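ARCHIVE CARD
CATEGORY: sequence design from structure
SOURCE FIELD: tokenized fold
FIELD CONTENT:
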């Protein structure tokens, strides 16, 4: 009895020692995000945190939980108990592509390895901190001989059901989306490359809050899913990025300084698209900006015509093709493509009620005692009517004169404006000066994404009213223009102390004309066909 007891204790201690060999000291458990067959002898595994494993030759058990049940694909039997375990009748080898990615290969007499598989799939420096301090004890190789339900390793005929806003960033979803589009364009890409692209789009589209299907559409349009693509203009990689732009972005994002690396190219491309989305708000305009650059798109708007890149690709057609690709992916998953809904916030300057002295802030006083707050409120309401008739949602920081609910403090005013979640913010004011000779129009912007919006509105307004041009200027002190997630500007529509400007701003007809110019600028900036403004 004593000897048996000693042998039993020794065996338990030996098992514990063996189980500890594949784990890292102090490691906490993670979750398996993706188990994807690359071919019949290779399996790609992605987890959300640093993961270790143990192997006994024909079995590999990871220190990551998996909720996939069990399946059989190619040479592999895969189970969750709850740790992900891969077994095979052939000897297995495991290669760490990163601390969170693994390539499992079933070896036979003639080791078959696909080209392009031996790559670093992930290069991000992001560290995901586990939320549990529990250190798992890895189980021994399962002895359950029950045959799992066979799963054929080909894209399913019936597309999966995805709840909008939840499953779109899942790497497996994006892998299916890419395979769907490859079939549409009759192009073959190595399975490992598809996995790389799906994983990178999942990470960076999510990081920059982009529609991943839009990113896939952009990749297809730019390179046809070819990571090694090079254009005649020296744009390179999946998202066709000029090397002169690539390296500074790559350094900022902490990715490899290799524009042909899948993850690095997608990271920089998503950053550039994100910048365009913040500046232009609409995907249609952001895509045109991606092709032409913001300066090129601005020149196109001011010229009143479309423009093309160095290869002759017209920006409007380019954007529409990418959007059609995006929409086809939504339809493939039986989802409705996103509906475009945009909010413009108009801020008629001044007019706030000061409870400390019971007075209203009427702004400047012009010729014949005209108040700035009255002029800009009337113009703002006319602008709102035009924008609404063109399908935009419009909110205003005030809608009445001498109303005690009108915000007086600028903190309250900007808080109210941002509560509407604006895509665009425009503050409308009128100017004044001690000398009646001062006249003309000037428009201000503060943050980097607002210059082009201010320029568009300024030029459209000038064209409409034919007043003196005092320029578009940056002023980093304007409190109401401090928003960083949307373009904002402040337009001074003219001097109510100048006879020429006053003649326009003091009459209903003149204010209608002013409103038409402002509204046209906003609509042009958003790339919306402008309905007749004779209202």
């Amino acid at each position: 009895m004593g000897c048996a007891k000693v042998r039993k204790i020794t065996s338990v201690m030996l098992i514990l020692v063996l189980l500890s060999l594949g784990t890292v000291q102090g490691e906490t458990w993670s979750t398996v995000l993706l188990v994807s067959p690359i071919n019949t002898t290779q399996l790609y595994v992605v987890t959300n945190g640093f993961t270790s494993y143990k192997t006994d030759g024909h079995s590999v058990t990871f220190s990551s939980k998996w909720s996939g049940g069990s399946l059989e694909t190619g040479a592999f039997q895969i189970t969750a108990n709850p740790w992900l375990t891969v077994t095979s009748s052939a000897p297995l080898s495991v290669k760490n592509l990163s601390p969170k990615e693994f390539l499992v290969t079933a070896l036979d007499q003639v080791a078959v390895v696909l080209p392009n598989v031996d790559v670093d799939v992930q290069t991000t420096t992001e560290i995901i901190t586990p939320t549990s301090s529990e250190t798992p004890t890895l189980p021994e190789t399962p002895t359950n001989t029950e045959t799992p339900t066979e799963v054929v390793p080909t894209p399913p005929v019936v597309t999966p059901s995805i709840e909008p806003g939840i499953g779109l960033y899942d790497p497996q979803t994006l892998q299916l989306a890419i395979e769907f589009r490859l079939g549409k364009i009759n192009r073959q890409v190595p399975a490992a490359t598809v996995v790389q692209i799906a994983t990178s789009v999942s990470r960076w589209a999510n990081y920059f809050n982009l529609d991943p299907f839009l990113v896939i559409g952009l990749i297809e349009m730019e390179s046809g899913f070819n990571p090694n693509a090079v254009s005649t203009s020296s744009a390179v990689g999946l998202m066709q990025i000029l090397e002169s732009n690539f390296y500074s972005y790559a350094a900022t994002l902490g990715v490899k300084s290799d524009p042909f690396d899948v993850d690095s190219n997608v990271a920089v491309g998503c950053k550039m698209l994100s910048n365009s989305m913040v500046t232009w708000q609409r995907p249609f305009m952001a895509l045109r900006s991606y092709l032409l650059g913001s300066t090129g798109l601005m020149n196109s708007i001011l010229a009143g015509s479309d423009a093309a890149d160095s290869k002759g690709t017209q920006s409007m057609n380019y954007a529409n093709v990418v959007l059609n690709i995006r929409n086809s992916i939504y339809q493939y998953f039986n989802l409705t493509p996103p509906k475009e809904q945009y909010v413009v916030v108009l801020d008629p300057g001044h007019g706030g009620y000061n409870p400390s002295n019971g007075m209203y802030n009427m702004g400047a006083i012009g010729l014949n005692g005209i108040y700035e707050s009255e002029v800009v409120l009337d113009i703002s309401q006319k602008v709102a009517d035009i924008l609404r008739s063109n399908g935009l949602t419009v909110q205003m920081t005030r809608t009445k004169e001498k109303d005690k609910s009108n915000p007086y403090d600028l903190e309250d005013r900007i808080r109210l404006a941002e509560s509407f979640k604006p895509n665009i913010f425009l503050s409308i004011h009128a100017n004044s000066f001690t000398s009646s000779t001062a006249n003309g129009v000037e428009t201000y912007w503060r943050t980097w994404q607002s210059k082009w919006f201010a320029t568009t509105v300024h030029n459209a307004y000038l064209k409409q009213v034919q007043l003196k041009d005092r320029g578009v200027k940056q002023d980093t002190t304007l409190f109401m223009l401090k928003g960083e997630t949307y373009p904002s500007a402040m337009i001074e529509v003219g001097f109510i102390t100048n006879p020429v400007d006053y003649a326009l701003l003091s009459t209903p007809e003149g204010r209608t004309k002013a409103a038409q110019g402002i509204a046209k600028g906003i609509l042009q900036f958003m790339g919306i066909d402008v309905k007749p403004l004779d209202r």
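CARD ANNOTATION: The two ends are 102 Å apart (CA to CA). Residues 1-27, 109-161 have pLDDT under 50 and may be disordered.
SHELF: design records, drawer C
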